[in-house]
Amino acid sequence: MSRDPHPHSPAPTRPEPPSTVLPSEAPLLSMHAAVVFIAAVIIGFIMGGLVFFSDKSAPQAVAAGLGSVGLSVPVLHKLIG
Asked: Which one of 13, 27, 36, 74 counts the least CB within 10 Å of its CB?
C-alpha cells in the first residue's frame, strides 16, 4: 500500500492545453505611414485629374499623378510627424 508522503499537499493539476489563439501580429503599416500614403495618393489623383483636364492626354496625366505621389511622400513624411 503506497501512501502519500505529503498528505496535505494540493492535488496535482492538469496541464493546460496549448492556446489555439494566435498571438497578435504587428500591423503591416503604422498609422503614420498609412496616413502619408493615403494623402500622397489623393494628391496624385488630384494632380493627374488637373493635368488630364488641361491637356486631354491620359499618359501625361498618369505621369503627373505618379510623379506627384513620389514627390509628396517624403514631404508628407516630414510634415506629418
From this structure: 13
